[in-house]
């Protein structure tokens, strides 16, 4: 009897390489490094935890073991005997956190490897029942070579029947947990359902890794942890402060980015925020025949067919530029053409941020960007004043470290995930000679933006641009606001010891004030502001830097954009005309808020015009609410009660009141005349 060999031996690995070249035509260069390490161990029925960057080829770990079994079973005379039993109908199970990821795996594997894959999702189950198809029978007969299922369906009665099928158990060659870093969310009951291999792009060392390994039962000599660097060398990480309200309806920071006509994925935390972003981009895009094809939504409420169509359009349609997606997209779903990833708001964990950024730049030949538009908590964390105990919900410690980083974001991520090689991964972008520097390194080393790396679009059918230069009148408005701020700084800082004898003009020098006014719209982050303040040797960066940035951000929000010019059309224009590009690029001056500090826009009507427009019989509470909130009237404003009353009705009401008074007092008068007066006369 010939000796048996293991797939992990050199001879076994050579056989794997030859079968891949024979049956996988889309792998002309053979297996990647991660695949060469993991596939022999999976075929040898060993436990594997694979950690690698997004786009590193982890999905091939599902299909290639199945192809190896099929090839050896169909041609047994061409191959030696292996220590592992070769199945006639090999089956693999992949547990996925979302149905979108399951559908994405099905589409990719059936296209690239030509194996039969089934996504055990609600839509597919319902379709099978309508067609009178017995899924339990089909799965236990090993009709499908790979099955994608979520943890919820694994606990249903049908899967207990499937797991008790001897034919199905005999043909299973592996089970895998995709996106293994979310296993803790599935609960400890998941341990009994899967225990072969797992993979993810984001897995922090220490307690998070130990928790997942404990849940999966990974221990002993047959467990292998394959940790490779999840750094994306062709992606530039940029952290910027969100200048608009996270719950608002305007996101002007997206316009310059989307003007470059690059395929973009915009990550949002809620479906409601996604609709607000979609509506803002739609209303600000030119009125062209391809307007509805330019932006798409991807969320769990949309149908599977719609979400799959969104991915297809991102990959194949040149007119589809951006998708606004929730977490349903971030877990493992990819489009090869995406080059920019934008996250609006601070994510819950650092793993979520890394997953979002990994969707851009899957093609190593292009330069990609990972932009995070973070909220006020990021501003506070950036100056290391955040108090985790004071927040409403617990904050991921790794996320706080990343937000507070002041040297290099790439090096910070490498430290968080212990990315090898440690000799260079902990260095900043310039010292490590990375392909592209992160945003922090560009500021520290004074590296200007190179338009050759991210060239702007010259196409006329782009979103209306937001100018970077203010008009002369707007500059004067900004200087007045800075003068008021200078007085506040002087009143606060002059009482402190180091600044008692400092001359008044040095609290905000004229040269610094002029530069801040000229570059107002170019200051997009607190890092850029810090660089400007440092160049002027401003001594109040630590104590006043954040308040100055908040002031500049509020001034930026008051600068009107070209697409909201007043007087660009008549009052009876149709709503669609708002989508037309403006007739001129000039913008009006900054509009002071006056006595309405909470108002974002000035009222477009006077109270007299509004009174004539809304003169209809409505309740007093509704009218007062309408005047104050819709028209922007101050809370103390009250309409005079006599102006809206008819004089005849007023006189009639007075007569009725007098009559009622007479009726009420007449009994007392009669009693006094006929009873009291005679008694008094008799007594006298």
TrEMBL record:
It catalyses: Couples ATP hydrolysis with the unwinding of duplex DNA by translocating in the 3'-5' direction. The keyword Iron does not apply. InterPro entries: DEAD/DEAH_box_helicase_dom, Helicase_ATP-bd, P-loop_NTPase. Pfam families: DEAD (PF00270). GO terms for cellular component: chromosome; cytoplasm. Gene3D superfamilies: P-loop containing nucleotide triphosphate hydrolases. Its EC number is 5.6.2.4. Residues 563-608 are annotated as: Disordered. SMART domains: DEXDc (SM00487). The lineage of its organism: Eukaryota, Fungi, Dikarya, Basidiomycota, Agaricomycotina. Signal peptide: none annotated. The keyword Transmembrane helix applies. Keywords: DNA-binding, Isomerase, Membrane, Transmembrane, Transmembrane helix. Belongs to the helicase family. RecQ subfamily. The chain crosses the membrane at residues 648-680. Residues 39-205 form the Helicase ATP-binding domain. GO terms for biological process: double-strand break repair via homologous recombination. It comes from Gymnopus androsaceus JB14. GO terms for molecular function: 3'-5' DNA helicase activity; ATP binding; DNA binding; four-way junction helicase activity. This is DNA 3'-5' helicase.
């Amino acid at each position: 009897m010939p000796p048996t060999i293991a797939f992990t031996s050199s001879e076994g690995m050579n056989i794997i390489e030859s079968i891949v070249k024979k049956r996988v035509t889309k792998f002309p260069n053979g297996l990647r490094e991660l695949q060469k390490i993991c596939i022999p161990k999976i075929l040898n029925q060993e436990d594997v935890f694979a950690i690698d960057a997004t786009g590193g080829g982890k999905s091939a770990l599902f299909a290639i073991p199945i192809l190896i079994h099929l090839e050896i079973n169909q041609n047994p005379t061409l191959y030696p005997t292996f220590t592992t039993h070769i199945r006639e109908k090999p089956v693999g199970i992949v547990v996925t956190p979302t149905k979108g990821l399951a559908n994405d795996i099905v589409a990719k594997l059936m296209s690239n490897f030509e194996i039969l894959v089934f996504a055990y999702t609600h839509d597919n189950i319902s379709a099978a029942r309508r067609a009178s198809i017995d899924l339990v029978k089909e799965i236990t007969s090993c009709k499908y070579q790979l099955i994608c299922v979520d943890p919820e369906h694994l606990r249903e009665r049908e899967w207990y029947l499937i797991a008790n099928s001897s034919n199905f158990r005999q043909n299973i060659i592996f089970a895998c947990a995709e996106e293994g870093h979310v296993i803790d969310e599935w609960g400890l009951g998941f341990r009994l359902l899967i225990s072969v291999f797992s993979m993810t792009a984001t897995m922090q060392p220490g307690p998070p890794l130990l928790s997942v390994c404990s849940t999966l039962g990974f221990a002993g000599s047959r467990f292998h942890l394959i940790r490779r660097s999840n750094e994306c060398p062709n992606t530039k990480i940029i952290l910027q402060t969100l200048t608009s309200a996270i719950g608002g309806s305007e996101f002007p920071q997206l316009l310059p980015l989307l003007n470059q006509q690059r395929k973009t994925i915009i990550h949002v935390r809620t479906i409601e925020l996604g609709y607000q972003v979609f509506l803002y981009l739609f209303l600000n895009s030119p009125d062209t025949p391809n307007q509805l094809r330019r932006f798409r939504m991807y969320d769990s409420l949309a149908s599977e067919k719609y979400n799959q169509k969104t991915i297809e359009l991102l990959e194949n349609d040149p007119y589809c530029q951006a998708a606004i997606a929730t977490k349903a997209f971030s877990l493992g779903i990819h489009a090869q053409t995406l080059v920019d990833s934008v996250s609006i708001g601070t994510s819950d964990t650092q793993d979520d941020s890394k997953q979002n950024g990994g969707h851009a730049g899957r093609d190593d030949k292009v330069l990609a960007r990972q932009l995070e538009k973070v909220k006020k908590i990021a501003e506070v964390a950036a100056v290391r004043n955040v108090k985790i105990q004071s927040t409403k919900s617990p904050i991921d410690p790794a996320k706080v470290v990343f937000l507070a980083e002041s040297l290099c974001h790439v090096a910070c991520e490498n430290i968080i995930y212990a990315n090898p090689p440690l000799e260079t991964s902990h260095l900043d972008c310039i010292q490590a000679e990375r392909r592209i520097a992160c945003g922090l390194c560009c500021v520290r080393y004074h590296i200007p933006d190179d338009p050759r790396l991210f060239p702007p679009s010259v196409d006329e059918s782009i979103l209306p641009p937001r100018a970077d230069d203010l008009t002369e009148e707007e500059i004067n408005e900004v200087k007045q606001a800075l003068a008021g701020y200078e007085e506040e700084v002087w009143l606060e800082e002059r009482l402190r010891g180091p600044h008692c004898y400092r001359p008044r003009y040095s609290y905000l020098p004229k040269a610094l004030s002029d530069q801040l006014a000229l570059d107002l719209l170019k200051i997009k982050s607190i890092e850029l502001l810090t660089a400007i303040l440092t160049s002027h040797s401003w001594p109040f960066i630590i104590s006043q830097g954040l308040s100055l940035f908040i002031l500049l951000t509020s001034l930026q929000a008051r600068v009107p954009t070209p697409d909201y010019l007043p007087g660009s059309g008549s009052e009876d224009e149709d709503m669609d005309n708002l989508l037309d590009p403006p007739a001129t690029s000039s913008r009006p001056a900054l509009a002071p808020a006056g006595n309405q500090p909470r108002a974002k826009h000035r009222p477009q009507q006077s109270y007299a015009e509004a009174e004539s427009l809304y003169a209809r019989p409505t309740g007093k509470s509704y009218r007062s609410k309408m005047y104050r909130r819709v028209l922007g009237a101050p809370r103390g404003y009250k309409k005079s009660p006599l102006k809206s009353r008819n004089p005849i009705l007023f006189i009639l009401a007075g007569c009725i009141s007098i009559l009622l008074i007479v009726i009420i007092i007449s009994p007392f008068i009669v009693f006094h005349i006929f009873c009291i007066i005679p008694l008094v006369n008799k007594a006298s």
